[in-house]
Amino acid sequence: MHVASGPRDFVDRPAGRYLRLGSLVYWCFDLDLWGVSASGVPSAEDVARFVEVLELEATRISDPPYASLVDFRRITYVEPAAFTAWARHLEQRRQQRGRVRREVVVRPTDGLVASVLAGYAEVLSPVHPVSVEVDPLRALHALGRTDASVVLDAIETIGPASSHQRALDRLRENLVPPWEVHTLDGAARALGVSSRNLQRQLQNVGTTFQAEFLQARLRFAERKLEDADEKVGAIALDAGFATQAHFTKAFTQSAGLSPAAWRAAHRKARS
Q1: How do residues 20-36 score in pLDDT, each as one tens digit?
Q2: Is the N or the C terminus of the chain less surrounded, counting Cβ atoms within 10 Å?
């Protein structure tokens, strides 16, 4: 699976991708199986970010109901504030028609967290059927996956991010229209770190601010080209390029097609 650059990028094209949210990783193996993996001590802030993505994902009303795997094997402690935040979210959605047809929670084998999660369904009363397992393969089989080993191999590779990766994830969340964050110094201020610190963290994951800023604008342009009928020149300006010529050159170098050709090819593929 491949990492998404941010919540909107993930929700727009979820299949085979994942989104890191602090100690949580929200992933979509395919449109029939979504899941969340967690480790350590998820914070209330992590849960709040996850809930925001869930609310955004709920706008995909044309998708059929899906199976959900909640992999909490590696949680070491349940922070009360985080538990309360998740319970509040479920309560708010209790009267809504759920998009999850079945959910399986994978808990640790023993300890306090295992005891808490063993009573997950009874305590939180989710709006869809829930069961609790210890073995992730059994959990996937319970969700009807005949490719359980393949799925497990995929999700085992997308654990929580390093501090460097978290810095990159936070940067990507800030690289959005109207492009208020458009310099390294501005990005550092938005993230509450020094420019030198941010530059070093990005280098540790093999990227730079300039590369990330360009890719964020190109991804935005791709979505506009695919989903909107705006002229290429207008999209270029919305994507933060000074001229259409500059945009066309950058886009063609990245995608291998001009913006117009890319739009035509992708719309043909969807028809």
Answers
A1: 887 889 999 999 999 99
A2: C
